[in-house]
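Deviation from plan, reported transparently: zinc ion complex.
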Amino acid sequence: MKNLESVFDQLSPEYQRITKQARKDFEKNRKLPEEDVRAYSMLLAEAEVIWEKAKETNDFKLYEPYLTKIVDFQRKFAGIFGAIDGSLYNTLLDDYEEGMTITRLDQFFATLRARIVPLVHRIGKAKQPRQDFMSRHFNRLGQLSLAKDVLHLIGYDLERGVLAESAHPFTSGISKNDTRVTTHVFEDNFISSVYSTIHEGGHGIYDQNINPAYKDTPLGDGASMAVHESQSRFYENIVGRSEEFSRLLLTKARAQFSGLLDDVTEDEFYRAINIARPSFIRTESDELTYSLHIMVRYQLEKRLIEGTLAVADLPSTWNQLMKEYLGVVPPTDTLGVLQDVHWSGGAFGYFPSYALGNAYSAQLLHAMKKDLDVFGLIAKGQLEPIKQWFMSHVYVYGKLIPPGEVLERATGEPLNPDYYCKYLEEKFAKVYHL
Ligand code: ZN
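Because the crystal trials were delayed, the predicted structure below was used instead.
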């Protein structure tokens, strides 16, 4: 053993990390009883089909026994891996965001709750911006052409990727040199395809520019799901929904769809792409309310895994939290607790990554502004320096260090939700003339 340790000490930081991670995965996997793994895999295969049917027919009761078994397995597995700081949920979180804990997330979400919920409430009383022009007919090919143009503008390399259509937009990083993104076109809502393209483009830019030294190694990947999401959200919201970018986009859209947007002012366009209002569906929610949808899911899955909430009580507790955080209650479970695929696939501990990604992106912006005139560059359509900044502050690490450390090295401090809240408060005060 002594010998092995001295060999380990002599390895490069890269090999130390790879060895450590491989060992961690191996140790975890071999602890699981084979018959449990088999039963669990079969359960998940069945549960996904049942979830789809339950969602289609608004029948939570049909899904309930399956979800109950999934939660039981998750609790059992987490127990076998070992609770972290006395919490089984911490063990599951660690799979998605290494080092993240309930203690830190509780503080994080408490800040979001204290600052974002009142803001949503104030906006609810404000006058909504003009939006009639958003649902005009924008033809499919024109939208695809605009989406490609926008991908190029933000710095996604179309020579090493491709844009295609799919029912649900996604990014598929086959390799650094083959990163494909998809979008979904709605002819009566061109903004939807533009922004889903920018979002996936942000994931794609990260994948295309991870430290080339780590190509084809376990380190040649995003630091975590949350760090990945910080990139897609940075490009989608911080860049894409900024006043400066909205002007570039309006010019491009006017050229693409001649005559369709001539009666729209720059200010009307900027405000329309930033409309915020509480809604039922997470994936369709706006920049301001998105993390509140995540907060609902965090509170619920934490309690399910900690054993303080029964699956049978999930729908009513879901609705109660929606009311508390967003002020709306979904009329059906299809529009509520049944909307997401994650839990039916056994992904507990995954949801917080979305909200963390949002917060990371705002903290990264704060740090980037010390080095770059970020919005001055965007106004000029010069986005290359932004990508370069990410390459040297985030992409360079690949998976070499834990996500929290990437954030700390890039921004000089650990996660601080104040940046995210401040960003939202300033932005939406401007959009809604508060
Ligand atoms: Zn994403």
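The pocket of zinc ion is lined by residues 199, 203, 229, 232 (CB under 6 Å). We consider this an acceptable substitute for the interim report.
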